[in-house]
Specification:
Blueprint: H1 4-9, H2 12-20, H3 24-34, H4 44-51, H5 69-80, H6 105-118, E1 127-131, H7 134-153, E2 158-161, H8 167-175, E3 180-182, H9 193-202, E4 208-213, H10 225-231, E5 237-242, H11 246-249, E6 274-278, E7 290-294, H12 296-306, H13 329-334, H14 340-367, E8 382-386, H15 390-395, E9 399-405, E10 408-416, H16 423-433
Parallel strand pairs: 2-3, 2-4, 4-5, 5-6
Antiparallel strand pairs: 1-7, 6-7, 8-10, 9-10
Helix pairs in contact: 7-8, 7-12, 14-16
Length: 441
């Protein structure tokens, strides 16, 4: 008897031999017959049970709130127009007319312009697109920086970032074939501008591709963009910001200056070259996606070089993106989050999120000082502390890492206070912490 497990275990010639005796109709019937609940590791009923516990996710930067009904109304309007019901494709540059008319480049352009304005990019000098994820946005920023710097100097740049940067940066560095210069960190985990200055001096013959992090993955530290830019004076450089989480909420706070492209005191002095922000983190967009924003001038310089290695005549223009076919549904759906009413709600979420972070930090300091709770800065929604009992780690899906504190490696966990982590959820977490002591003490 051919079971589903045996069927899926066949490959290559064996699969051809097995399927040769089946018509498409009978093969479909076989698969349907074998597709029973007992063969599915996780049923829809199980997923529904998990959904009821979603607000207990505290260890990772994902907004678990369900978007408002207005978002789903917008989705229904898109479906009624055909978007998401057949193969739409945002291939290429959203600012160019596409050879495929079934796209959402118009929504994509508008999203980039609206968020570009939020980050203080000049209206006439803004380019970007909706990527597959924050990592995808970082890849485009790093690739653009590498291409531009190599063309300007004739030398491949070196990549400068810290060990606190997101792990994807090291993957992308490897994909791009770049040598790494690790920059030291300040006590809070942010990049040390003085060490960057020294590392630049140690590598004078190579341009510098610097990846700064606005909200480091575990500690929530913020690399000081202006001091980094000051250290880069006199060097051929490209500065990309990985602002996956913090870039989502900081523009809605009094700390917006941390992620603005133009200096508030000197608008003529750009503070960085490109920025990456995740859509599924602070915003609560229900699938992975990312914003990538740079200037039109940077894009034009890059695309002229890009066209020398990639000029797909049959789509009628040089796309300027690494990915070819791109999701057209996400830009249309994410357009909702650029509307005035949605941005008003985002501002409310940003304020309450930081207030709840203060509450959590104060409570942990007062009641669980032995856990050594730490908040890197007043802009951060992250509190890290000594790892509690395993059952708490599992219940709240806490991220854990070994950190070197006082020359000794110790295991830590953190809570990332996202919009769904309200006072009720945090109080339940604090109550659970009161039931046990840290496992490693």
């Amino acid at each position: 008897m051919l079971t589903r497990r045996r069927f899926l275990g066949y490959g290559g010639a064996g699969m051809l031999a097995i399927t040769a005796g089946y018509s498409p109709q009978s093969l479909s019937g076989l698969l349907n017959q074998q597709e029973t609940a007992s063969n599915i590791p996780l049923s829809l009923a199980d997923k529904a049970k998990l959904a009821k516990l979603k607000n207990l996710l505290l260890g990772y930067p994902v907004n678990m709130n369900t978007p408002p009904e207005a978002f789903f109304d917008w989705r229904r309007q898109l479906l009624a127009a055909g978007i998401g019901t057949f193969a739409y494709n945002n291939v290429g540059n959203p600012n160019k007319e596409s050879a495929i008319p079934y796209n959402t480049h118009d929504f994509e352009r508008e999203v980039i312009l609206r968020f570009g304005k939020l980050f203080a990019f000049p209206a006439a000098d803004t380019w970007g697109f909706i990527s597959n994820s924050g990592t995808d946005s970082n890849m485009h920023g790093m690739y653009m920086g590498r291409t531009i710097l190599k063309a300007r100097t004739g030398v491949l740049p070196k990549a400068y970032f810290t060990k606190e940067a997101h792990y994807s940066i090291q993957i992308l560095r490897d994909l791009l074939g770049l040598e790494t210069v690790f920059v030291g960190t300040l006590p809070d985990g942010g990049m040390d501008p003085d060490d960057l200055r020294q590392k630049l001096a140690d590598n004078p013959s190579h341009p510098a591709l610097v990846i700064a992090t606005i909200g480091t993955t575990f500690k929530g530290a913020i690399d000081q963009v202006d001091r980094i830019q000051d250290a880069l004076k006199g060097y051929s450089s490209y500065l990309h910001l990985d602002a996956a989480l913090f870039g989502g909420y900081l523009p809605f706070t009094s700390h917006a200056g941390e992620v603005l492209y133009q200096s508030q005191t000197n608008p003529a002095a750009p503070r960085y070259d490109s920025i990456a922000v995740s859509c599924h983190k602070f915003f609560g967009f229900p699938s992975p996606a990312g914003l990538f924003i740079t200037t039109q001038n940077h894009f034009d310089e890059f695309n002229k070089l890009f066209s020398q290695i990639h000029d797909p005549e049959y789509i009628h223009h040089v796309p300027g993106t690494i990915t070819c076919s791109r999701d057209a549904v996400k830009p249309a759906e994410f357009y909702f989050f650029s509307t005035p009413s949605a941005m008003d709600k985002l501002a409310e979420d940003a304020q309450s999120m930081l207030q709840h972070t203060v509450f959590l930090m104060e409570q942990m300091q007062a009641r669980f000082s032995h856990l050594q709770p730490t908040r890197a800065n007043d802009l951060s929604n992250t509190v890290f502390f000594r790892k509690p009992s395993d059952w708490i780690v599992k219940k709240y899906s806490l991220a854990t890492m070994h950190l070197e504190i006082d020359n000794k490696k110790q295991e830590y966990a953190h809570v990332v206070v996202m919009p769904h982590a309200n006072r009720k959820v945090l109080t339940e977490f604090l109550t659970d912490l009161g039931k046990v002591s840290v496992t490693s003490l």
